[in-house]
Specification:
This protein is mainly alpha-helical and 264 residues long. The protein has 15 helices and four strands. The longest helix has 21 residues. The radius of gyration is 25 Å and the shape is elongated. The N and C termini lie far apart (92 Å).
Length: 264
Amino acid sequence: ARRKDLLSRRSGYRRLKSVHKLGFWSRNIGDDVMKTDLKDILEALKENYRLDYGNLDLSDSWAMKALTLWCFDLERSTQQVTRAQYDAFLFPEGAAESETKSESPDLFWLRVKDGFSVRLSMQEVFDVKSSVRYDSIQNLSKIKSKRVLTALYKLLKDSNPNIRAVACVSLVQTDITNMTSLEKITKLLTDNDRLVRESACLAIAKFNQPSSVTALLNVWRNDVISDVRAAAKQALESIGTEEAEEGMKVVKTLQEEFKTLYNM
């Protein structure tokens, strides 16, 4: 019995019911229920699992509520959770994923624990003394969440240029390429650090947006660092619009003329 208890502690949770055959919502809320109070989910978690994970005691109602709201991307004032929000939490890839994967009995709790791991990563990211800060930022990029996006947006303004560069690349790796992200990354083209400007050029290429051509052409023409200019050129070639091609052609033509003048 002592060995079983030790194993349950290592796994981070312990089932209080002998067998779970249904998913968390089905067995605790009901398949025919499309909306439930958040407190019902919290009570069911307490009833179904041993709520300790690492050094965090999730048996505390406030901590558990805060973590669950964070996982669901809900505001603090939220009192209810819909089945659609629950399904989106379990299957972040959407309907296609839910059709190919069934909900295992403990999937919801595993997702909550994953959410806690991400939250720990975020704490490490904002801990300027953390030795694993860069790895933590890259770990964030694997999670598709509004809160992770918000965290990465903040890191784009970090005082450490290395953090700004890593956050820029990580933001693109989330695969959430919206215009807000593009606008924030574009601002880094004028950063005072050359690695940040270079990472911004490479990140912008992933968006493949014609609206970025003018800014990239300006970097390609005027940046004093050759590596940054090379990154801007790569981004322009990747976007490949008529404006990008024409702008690069004009610059190349002028450069050839300059060489001729130098040799006269």
